[in-house]
Design brief:
Blueprint (H helix, E strand, L loop, with lengths): L1 H16 L14 H13 L5 E6 L5 H11 L5 E7 L2 H10 L7 E3 L11 E7 L8 H11 L1 E11 L21 H7 L6 E6 L8 E8 L2
Parallel strand pairs: 1-2, 1-4, 2-3, 4-5
Antiparallel strand pairs: 5-7, 6-7
Length: 212
């Protein structure tokens, strides 16, 4: 697993840090309008006031956007970010100095957080395929508070080229709900985001797993 995470940093850090546009520093290569269409469903899954942790937060841009999008619906969200890349977390802290103490460097698969959160966002491709079940169980047991929700995103929903877009060793998930059910998890609901670029035609899905 250590090799998997080392390869993840090697693959992502240079491209993220090479751009000046905040959505590209957060791993999205297209224009901002596409970012909004394919990321806003994360905020739509937050249905009440509470804390939000973004695992794999990179430069903190999704945290920033979630705060704005939930505020538009009158919700008060307490933001947090976690990433295994020190340079990316440092970038998030520089970009959002008023939230600098909310961004932490750690590996979510092994970290024991000092508190729990109402909403926690993650992706299955963050861990090797054989570790997905244990990873989600760890998040539900240690990260998500009672009655909270785990938001599991798939940014390659129904896409044919998933294997080429993830690290070797990760599962090429094309249908997030089917994958979660196969791993033994009950999905309460989901939200979709559809690409505004008809030629790209990407789709994302956020599956909500409710904590006990």
């Amino acid at each position: 697993m250590d090799d998997f995470f080392a390869r993840m940093r090697h693959a992502l850090e240079p491209s993220y840090l090479a751009s000046d546009e905040p959505w590209k520093q957060s791993g999205f290569s297209g224009p901002e309008a596409r970012w909004v269409a394919l990321r806003r469903p994360v905020a739509d899954c937050i249905d009440r006031d509470g804390s939000f942790l973004d695992i794999g937060c990179a430069n903190g841009y999704l945290v920033e956007c979630v705060l704005r999008w939930t505020a538009e619906r009158g919700l008060a969200v307490d933001p947090w970010g976690l990433d295994l890349s020190p340079p990316l977390v440092a970038l998030a802290q520089r970009r959002l100095p008023h939230l600098a103490d909310r961004f932490h460097v750690a590996n979510a698969a092994t970290w024991q957080p000092p508190r729990r959160f109402d909403f926690v966002r993650t992706e299955l491709c963050y861990v090797p395929a054989d570790d997905e079940r244990a990873y989600l169980q760890h998040l539900l047991a240690r990260y998500v508070g009672p009655g909270g929700a785990l938001l599991v995103c798939n940014y390659a929903e129904d896409q044919p080229d998933v294997a080429a877009r993830i690290l070797p060793g990760a599962h090429p998930t094309t249908k997030i709900i089917d994958r979660l059910v196969a791993l033994g998890f009950a999905v309460e609901r989901y939200r979709d985001g559809d690409d505004v670029d008809r030629h790209k035609a990407r789709k994302m899905r956020v599956a909500v797993i409710r904590a006990a």
